[in-house]
Amino acid sequence: MSQSTEQDIAQDFLEQVRWTSDGLVPAIAQDTKTNDILMFAWMNKQSLALTVEEQRAVYWSRSRQKLWRKGEESGHVQLIKEIRIDCDEDVIILKVEQLGGIACHTGRHSCFYRRLENNVWQTVEKVIKDPSDIYSK
Amino acid sequence: MSQSTEQDIAQDFLEQVRWTSDGLVPAIAQDTKTNDILMFAWMNKQSLALTVEEQRAVYWSRSRQKLWRKGEESGHVQLIKEIRIDCDEDVIILKVEQLGGIACHTGRHSCFYRRLENNVWQTVEKVIKDPSDIYSK
Fold first, then answer.
1. Is A1 on the interface with B (CB under 8 A)?
2. Which architecture, in CATH terms, is A3-103?
3. What is the pLDDT of residue B5?
4. Interface contact A36, partner B, CB < 8 A
């Protein structure tokens, strides 16, 4: 197989994704052991390519308009165990090993720590580590 | 408590959601027993209110621009067991009992039935029921 053909195959999976008009795709990070949903973020083509290449979650920060290697400040890197795509090819799941057990910037395991109870969003997950200890480096 | 105050409280959780400029919020449906991610869809304020009221998943179909009571054609209704929101208040999880065990229009348990293997999206989940048998009523 020629080098260019190999490269074409290597990039095909990126072309199959149905990117939004902004060039993004929603990504759900899921704990590979518990199946807990950890967080939700966005990826662009480069961030998905880098995620596959580096085997760690790399997102696209819409607020900062730059690549976001999850854990670059906190150390809470997400190691890739599996990547899935849905039937419409417009949503990605990253099954990850969450280093430190903390995905949320609030110091909790998951960003989804509030549950609707009697029409009120109630916090039901504890803070594992104080954010000021996570980001004070 | 006056009736209007009760109504205010009842609607507050809807106001707390950070809706997109289109008035939508992403919603992830997750199997309450296995924690498998079943599908991803969008909700508007009315669909979230109806989801809470009827205790079944009601989405907003962006392609059809109308409310979509999941299972209205297929019978694959999603009964609500828990609703969560993330730290940014802009993503919802519906933990559901998936009637029929099928969430995907392809007749599979989950819409996320393709896994990236050597840079190719490979189908790794079986069809439980032929779609022509699901939608031929």
1. no
2. Roll (3.10)
3. 64
4. yes
Q: Can you read off the two tokens belonging to residue B73?
A: 């054609």
The string of pLDDT tens digits covering residues B22-57 is: 999 999 999 999 999 999 999 999 999 999 999 999
Residue range B49-84, pLDDT digits in tens: 999 999 999 999 999 999 999 999 999 999 999 999
| Binary contact (A9, B115; C-beta < 8 A) | no
Tell me the CATH number for domain B3-105. Answer: 3.10.20.810
Round to whole Å and give the CA distance between A135 and B127: 46
Mean pLDDT of A34-58: 97
Test the A interface: residue of B81, B91, B94, B122 with most A CBs within 10 Å: B91
Domain parsing of chain B, residue ranges: 3-105
**Could you tell me if B18 lies within 8 Å of chain A, comparing CB atoms?**
no
Residues B109 and B128 sit within 8 Å (Cβ to Cβ) = yes
B118 burial level (CB within 10 Å; 0-12, 13-18, 19+): exposed
